[in-house]
Amino acid sequence: MAEMTGAVAAAFSLVAAADPELIEIVRLSLQVSVAAVAIAALIGVPAGAALAMLRFPGRRVLIVAFNAMMGLPPVVVGLCVYLLLSRTGPLGELGLLFSASAMILAQAILITPIVTALTRQVIEDLWQDFSEQLRSLGVGTPRAMLTLIREARYRLLTAVLAGFGRAIAEVGAVLIVGGNIAHHTRVMTTAIALETSKGNLALALGLGIILIAVSLLINALVYLTSGVARRYSGT
Predict the structure, then answer these.
(1) CB of 174 within 8 A of CB of 107?
(2) Mean pLDDT of each 10-residue bin along the chain, 235 residues long
(3) Which fold does the domain 24-233 belong to in CATH?
């Protein structure tokens, strides 16, 4: 018990003192996850809006597929990206394996279906309400899509934040494609696993405290933006 109490106290001391190793790991974690979320948003929001508004053969299959991919196993995604970027893979010549870029790619693949599926649900609801009005005004599909995305920006922000929450807490995929290399690809989740196995509980707990704080912040932002969206829509 005394050992555990000491580890917890040491962890809070590391956080309070802004330990350089801890800050380096946290910074890389945020950089990787923010970049992955940006890519996922750039792809997922337009794709989700298109699925909501356009009618074409195979649309329902795509909707089901994106909904199913919201639960993609991270280790499987990591394995696929590893094979893609390995020396014998189709993109092996780029030399991206065991780099931050590989981790960003893996996280982006994981969270793009989340952003796409949630965006589709939000935009489809708005399209059902406003499609006739927009058509009567002579608004074309591309412009209508932009209008609805702007109208739903707070709810779409909630979808993006949900993707970020998934990305920042992910461990399997980034461990496979990043390799957990010190000062290079070590992020919070992989560092916690490593330091725990080494018995360095102070650093593991310190990172855990920050990861929990980030998760709480993300959930608070999701709650607040959901409230703003409800007030904005008058519901």
Answers:
(1) yes
(2) 74 84 93 96 95 91 93 93 93 92 96 95 88 79 88 87 90 93 92 90 90 87 73 58
(3) MetI-like fold (1.10.3720)
